[in-house]
Amino acid sequence: MSSILLLTSSPRAESLSTPIAVDLAEKLKSQNPGSAIVRRDLATNPLPHIDDLFTGAIRKPAEARTAEEIAAIKTSDELVNELFAADTIVISTGLINFNIYSSLKTWIDNVARAGVTFKYTESGPVGLLTGKKVYVVLASGGVYSQGPAAPLNHAVPYLKSVLGFLGITDIETIYVEGLAFGPEAAEKAIDAAKSRVQEIALAA
């Protein structure tokens, strides 16, 4: 059975990235009736930031970890398993201070693990999460996909870099942007994102 991993990270009750990402995941599921959606609401149920115990534990062989260290990475192990099981990953975030929400960054810190989701080789690092498709839904008040503000969009380059490092290179961004430019511009941006979601679902 195929799995769709849905990661939402906006803490805003009126978030637009979240409902569009949810709609995309549900439409993809409807196109593949045997699939399942695994959702992580990183805003409502935030993950703990990694600490010294965590970083020490992941550097040890499993058999050498103490009970406390095993407990410290239990959630990380669950997140990694969800990621490996997923065929498609839908990620939603707003653009905050030109980057992703900290809740999403914490998820990345939990799943980017040497020897698990990537490995070091003589020829350099190799990602171990290949063959997956990622859709990023990015909402912003301004326009950051192109134009003069594009260099300030650190969210998409970062996500492409870190996911690519893990072996995931098939990434598409669905922008919901220009939301602060008035009701008409916001409506146009939302409609464009919804249209793209529909196109993706029909092609799935």
Can you tell me about this structure?
By secondary structure, the chain is α/β, with parallel strands linked by helices. The chain has one domain (3-203): Rossmann fold (3-Layer(aba) Sandwich), CATH 3.40.50. The protein contains seven helices and seven strands. The protein has helices at 17-31, 52-57, 67-72, 74-85, 102-111, 155-165, 183-203; strands at 3-8, 36-41, 88-94, 118-121, 124-127, 133-139, 170-176. The strands form two sheets. Strands 2-1-3-6-7 form a five-stranded parallel sheet, sandwiched between helices. It is globular. The two termini are 15 Å apart. The model has no long low-confidence stretch (mean pLDDT 96).
Short description:
With 204 residues, this protein is α/β, with parallel strands linked by helices. It has helices at 17-31, 52-57, 67-72, 74-85, 102-111, 155-165, 183-203, and strands at 3-8, 36-41, 88-94, 118-121, 124-127, 133-139, 170-176. The strands form 2 sheets. A 5-stranded parallel beta sheet has the order 2-1-3-6-7, sandwiched between helices.
Main sheet record: 5 strands, parallel
Shape: globular
Output the number of helix runs: 7
Percent range of helical residues: 25-40%
Oligomer: single chain
Q: Under the CATH scheme, which class?
A: Alpha Beta
Using the CA coordinates, give the radius of gyration: 18 Å
Fraction of residues in β-strands: 15-25%
Work out the count of structural domains: 1
Structural class of the secondary structure composition?
alpha/beta
Total strands: the figure is 7
Cα-to-Cα separation, first versus last residue: 15 Å
